[in-house]
Specification:
The protein is α/β, with parallel strands linked by helices and about 325 residues long. Helices cover about 40% and strands about 15% of the residues. It folds into two domains: about 200 residues, NAD(P)-binding Rossmann-like Domain (Rossmann fold), CATH 3.40.50; about 90 residues, UDP-galactose 4-epimerase, domain 1 (Alpha-Beta Complex), CATH 3.90.25.10. The longest helix has 21 residues.
């Protein structure tokens, strides 16, 4: 039986990845500060603990695994990442996790590691035009991320690739672009735009307004969770180390995202634009490299993913109302 370790298995992407690996017949160990919030973990062995603690990391990476997925990070949506109030924690916590995990892997001769970086590491100056952002993989330098979250991701990319060069490891680096879907954070300040908008639309009557940060013309692409997991596994089992984008290239404005949520909710929803943290003006996944190297790219339409996500968030709102 093949074995896998998923760091960050209590989180949104990690819990979905555990489920996929179990479907494939893997024995899976999950590690996180907490269990998954919305469903029971399917991991064979789930260890609760702090990956910032090197001694704890050494205990959970105590054997040879066929595949190790390092998704653990201090993260959240724009309301968490771009205010500046959490910068020190974001950089310290995530850097410590990555330093600990990669060194423990080296000591146990675990070579096959997947690292989830982020599109937030791309230079701000390439994302000022909302209609034509440049997120091609080779545009990363000269570096100029718009947040400390992005700087830490860039540092950790280089960390994993340096271990490849110096220690003969086989680390794979993916740059995620706005992953969303059921069982993702949908309230509390760390949720991302699709979940926040679905929650707001589900919570109002038709004809009412929801608040949107900025003028809503900033552009993004959003990748449904199932395709994120598929792309991650394909990269892990390929001969390509990356970095490579794993994201949708269906770019929309935030105003358009509200329109899509309104459509799947069958509501007429207005928008009230307010001040708030925004991030870059435009961002979209450039999928030419992933198509060339993996012969694959995401294909699910945003509206299909939003429909599934809206249905799940609506159920969560009803559940909370009855508790």
């Amino acid at each position: 039986m093949k074995t896998a370790l998923v760091c960050g298995a209590g989180g949104f992407i990690g819990s979905h990845l555990v489920n996929r690996l179990k479907e494939e017949g893997f024995w899976v160990r999950g590690v996180d500060l907490k269990y998954p919030e919305f469903s029971e973990t399917q991991a064979d062995d789930f260890v609760v603990g702090d990956l910032r603690d090197q001694a704890f990391v050494n205990r959970v990476i105590d054997q040879k695994f066929d595949e190790i997925y390092q998704l653990a990070a201090d993260m959240g949506g724009a309301g968490y990442v771009f205010t500046g109030e959490n910068d020190a924690d974001i950089m310290h916590n995530s850097a410590m996790i990555n330093l600990n995990v990669i060194e423990a892997c080296r000591r146990r001769n675990n070579k096959n590691i997947f690292y989830s970086s982020s599109a937030c590491m791309y230079p701000e100056h390439n994302q000022l035009d909302p209609s034509n952002p440049n997120c091609e993989e080779n545009s990363a330098y000269p570096a100029n991320p718009d947040s400390e979250y992005g700087w830490e991701k860039l540092f950790s990319e280089r960390l994993y690739l340096a271990y490849n060069r110096n220690y003969g490891m086989n680390c794979k680096v993916a740059r995620y672009h706005n992953i969303f879907g059921p069982e993702g954070t949908w309230q509390g300040g760390k949720e991302k735009a699709p979940a926040a908008i679905c929650r707001k639309v589900a919570s109002i009557e038709g004809g009412d307004e929801i608040e949107v940060w900025g003028d809503g013309t900033q552009t993004r692409s959003f990748l449904y969770i199932d395709e994120c997991v598929e792309g991650s596994i394909k990269l892990m089992r390929s001969d390509f180390q990356g970095p490579v984008n794993i994201g949708s290239d269906e770019m929309v404005t935030i105003n358009r995202l509200v329109e899509i949520a309104s459509k799947v909710a069958d509501k007429n929803v207005g928008i009230k634009h307010i001040d708030g943290p925004l991030g870059v003006k435009g961002r979209n996944s450039d999928n030419r490299l992933i198509k060339a190297k993996l012969g694959w790219a995401p294909s699910l339409k945003l509206e299909q993913g939003m429909r599934k996500t809206f249905r799940w968030i609506s159920e969560q709102i009803k559940l909370c109302a009855t508790q």
